[in-house]
Predict the structure.
Amino acid sequence: MKRGNLWLWSAAVLVYAFLYIPLIIVVLYSFNDSRLNAEWVGFTLFWYKALFNNTEMLLAARNSLVIALCASFCATLLGTMSGLAIHRYKLKVLPVLVFTPVAMPEILLGVSILLFFLQVLNFTLGMVSIIIAHTTFCIGFVAIIVRARLQGMDESIFEAARDLGASPWQTFRLVTLPLIMPAVVAGALMSFTLSIDDFVITFFTKGVGEPILPIQIYTMIKVAVTPEVNAISTLLMLLTLVMIIIAARLESNGSSEGNAKPHTAE
Amino acid sequence: MNSPRLLSFLLVSLLTFSAGCTPQDPDAANSGKNVLHLFNWNNYIAPETVARFEKSCKCDLAQDYYADNEEMLAKLAAGATGYDVIVPTGNALDTLIRQGVLSPLDKSLLPNFRNINPAYLDTAFDPGNIYSVPYAYTLSLLGFNKEKIEQLGLPTDSWAIIFEPRYLEKIRGRVTVLDSQRELMAAALKYLGYSANDTDEKHWQEAAGLIVRAKPYWAAFSNTSYIKELAVGNLWVAHGYSNDMFQAALDAQKTGRKFTISYSTPKEGAVLAVDSMVLHKNGKRPDLAHQFINFMLDGKNSAELTNLIGSGNPNLDALQYIQPEIASNKAIFPDLELIARLEMLRDLDRKQRRLLSRLWTEIKLR
Amino acid sequence: MIKDGTKEKQLARLLVSGPPLLFLIVFFVAPSLIMILTSFRFPGEFGGLAPVTPPSDKAIGEYGFTSDAYQFFFSDFIYTEIFLKSFAVAFGTTLICLILAYPLAVLIARSRKHLRNLMVLLVILPFASNFLIRIYAWMIILGPESALSHFLNTVLGAFGIAPVTLLFSPFAVLVGMVYVHLPFMVLPLYTNLEKHDLSLLDAAQDLGANAWQRFWRVTWPLSLPGVFSGSALVFIPVLGMFAVPDILGGTGDILIGNLIKDQFLGTRDWPFGSALSIMLTMAVLSIAGLTTWFARSATGQRAI
C-alpha cells in the first residue's frame, strides 16, 4: 500500500502542477517588464497602470459587475425557488428545464437566445439581453446547490414546524430559509462568478457599444496581446478567489458535521 | 449572522439593479446635447480631425467600431440602432442599399462633394451617389521584404508568388494571406484571369483548387498580425491591405531594420475597397451627419487620415495636403492605368454566400 | 393529511414553482423552439431570414419553409467530417482527462477530511479563474518564443528533426480542452470514490489480489457511475466549444462550435447555423442518453 501511495501522490502532484503552473505564469508575467510574454526581464507595475488608464477596460469592468449583480440576484431568487420546488414536490417539467441549460453546450443557449431576441421580441441586444441569458443558465447552478443542501437535511424539522401549526410561508420564513441560507449565498456567489467570467453566451447576446470584460479580454488576445491581459487576468483571479473562498467557508460553516462535502457546480 | 449579510447583499443588488439595469439608450445619456453617432472602422479617423469637428459643430462625436464589414452587417442585423453615419466598404454598401436601410444624401448640404475624384463616383451599386460619398480606399495587394525577395529572384509584380509552388518553395513558411473569403478568392480569380466578381461555380472551384495547392507553403491566414511580422522580418511576403503595408514599411524604417518593406499591385489586378460615408435611416441627427460628411469632404480634413495611416484618398482637394512620399506612391494613389485593373467587390446573394462558405470551409480544412 | 392546509399548500406550490417555470419557458423553451423553426427557413437575400410569405410586390428568392439547410449539410461530406472531428476531439479530451483525474480523485477520496476539503478547493480554484485566461495561459506556454518551445526544438534539433510549432495546432487545441475541463472530471470521480467501502479492498488483498487486480476488479467497476458522469460533463461541453480552437488552433482546426459561430456572426446564414445547432443538440442528447444507459447497466454488474 505504501508504494501505491507514493505513486498516487506523485501523480496527484503532477496534476496539480499541470493545473497551476500556467496560471502562475500568467500572474508572474503581469509584472514582467517586457512586451513579450517570453522571458523575465524585470519587475514592474506598468501594465497595471496601463490597465487603470484604459477607460474602455474600466467601463467593461463596470458593465460586467452590473450584469453579474443583476443576473446573480435573479438567478438566486429563481434558483432557490426551483431548488425548493424540485426537492419538495414531485415535478416533472421543472427539473428538466432547470438543469438542461447547465448540461448543454453554452453556444446553443447563446445562439437560441440571440435568435429569440432578434426575431420574436425584436429587442435590441444590450445589457438586458445579457442579464437574461446569464440568469437562464445560472438558475440551474443555484438550484443544484440549494437542492443538495435540502437533501442533506433532516425532514423532521419541517414536520415539527407543521405540527406546531405553522403555515407553509411561516415554515419557509422561519425554518427553511435560515437553514438553507448558506446554500443560497453560495449559489449567489457562484452565479456572480459564472456571470463575470462568462464568455460564450455573452459573445452572442451582447449588443453594440457596451464593452463587457471577457469580450474585451478576448479582443485583446486576438488582436494585440500585451501583458495588460495578464494584469487583468490576475485581478480577476483574485476576485473570483475571494468569492470562492467565501462560498466554501459558508458551506462548511453552515452544514452539520455529517455532510461536509463542499457543494460544487456540476 | 446571516440575515444582515443577506439584507445588505439584497440592498446593494437592488440599488444596482435600478441604477444599472435599464437598457442603455445612447440618447438618454446624452439627451439635450448634440451628439453624432459614428459607426466606423478601428483607427479610421485621426484624433485631430475628431477634435476639430467637435469644435466646429459644437457637438460630440460618439464612435463605435468594427473590424470588418461582416461584423458591421451582423451587428446592424442584430438590431444595433441609433447610428447616424456608417462607413461601409463597397460590397457592404451594396447590401445596405439593397436592404433599404439608408437615407438618401441631401447634396445641397454637401458643397464639398465636388472635391471627389470622378473616377471613384458612380459605382454600379450606387449610380449617381444617391446614398454614399467616398471616404477613403485601400487596395488589397502584396507586401514584400524587398531585399530578401530580390535576393531570391522572385517576381514582385504578380500573384504567382503566393500561388505557384515553384516560387513558394523558396519562401515556405514565410508567406501569409488574408483570412478573408472574398479577398483570397478574388486574388485567386484575378490570377486565373477571371473577374473578382465572377460567380461561376466552375471558376470558384478552380480558384479553390489553386488555393488548396498553395496552402501548405503558407505560414498562416492573417488579417492583422502580418503587419508586425513583416516589419520584424519573420515574414517575407504578405497578402494584405495597402494602408497596413504603409504601416509595416514605416515600422521597419523606424526600428532601423536592415531591410525595407515594399508593396505593389500585381499586374493581373486587385481588389479596390472603397469605404463610403452613408446615412442610416435610423439615425437621429441627419443634420449633424451632413455637417460631418461635408467636413470630411474638405481636403485638409480628409488628408489627415491619409497622412496618418496611408489610406488612399479619393478627394482631389486633399492632394495638396498629403505628404509627397505618400502622394507619389502608386500603390496608395493608383494612376488611371492601374485603376483600370482594379475591381470593387459586389455583394453575393444567399445561394452564392452559401457556396462560398462551403468552399471556404473546405479550403480551411484540407 | 391536514385537509384545511391543502389549498394553502397548493398555492405555495404554485408560488414556488411558478416563477422559475415561467421564466424558463419564456427564455429557454421558446428560444429553443425558435431555433428549430429557423432551421427550416430560407436565409434572407442579404442577411437575416427570408419572410415566411412573399411580400406583395416582387418575390426574389424563395419563401416559406424548407429543409434546404439540412440538405446543404448533407450535400458535402465536409460538414459531417467536422462533426466527426469534434467527436474525436471530445473523446480524446475525455480520455486524457480521465487518465489525469483518476489518481488525483483516488487520493482525495482516501485522504482525511480536512485535507480532502483543501484538495478539492485546490482543484476548483483554477476553474474559478476566467475561462479565457486559462486558454491564454497556454498561448504563453506554447508560443514560439517560450521556454518550452525553445527547449523542445533544441532537443528535436539534436535528433535532426525539423522544429515544430506547438501553438496554433491540433495539439494546442487538445491541451487547451483538457486544461479547461479537467476539474469537471475530478469532482464526480472523487464524489463517487469517496463512497467506496475500503474494507472491500482489504478483503481482496487478503484473498491474494495484487494492486492492479484490486484496482481493476474492485475500484474501477464501483467507480463507473462517477466515470460516466465525469465523462459526460467533459464530453458534452467540448463538443460545443469554439473558443479553444479559435484562440489556440490553426486555420484547419475548426470544430462544430466554430462553424456555428461563423454562420451567425460571419456568413449571416441563420438557417444553416440553426440546423447545425439542432444537430449538435441531437448529438448531445444521444450522448447523454447513452451515458445514462451505460451507467445503469454498469451499476447492474456491481461487484459484491
Summary: Chain A has a mean pLDDT of 83. Chain A touches chain C through 90 residues (CB under 8 Å). The domain at 53-254 of chain A is CATH 1.10.3720.10 (MetI-like fold). Chain A is about 75% helix and 0% strand.
